Amino acid sequence: MNFTVLIPARLQSTRLPGKVLLPIAGLPMIEWVRRCALDSGACRVVVAADDAQILAAVEAHGGEVVQTDPRHSCGSERLAEAAEILGLPADEIIVNLQGDEPLMPASLIHAVAAALAADPQLSVATAAVPMTRWEEFIDPHAVKVVLNAAGDALYFSRAPIPWDRDGYPLADADAALPAGQHWRHLGLYAYRAGFLRDYARWPRSALETIESLEQLRILERGERIRVCCGDMAAPIGVDTPADLARVRAVFSTYEECRI
Question: What is the pTM of this model?
Answer without folding.
Answer: 0.92
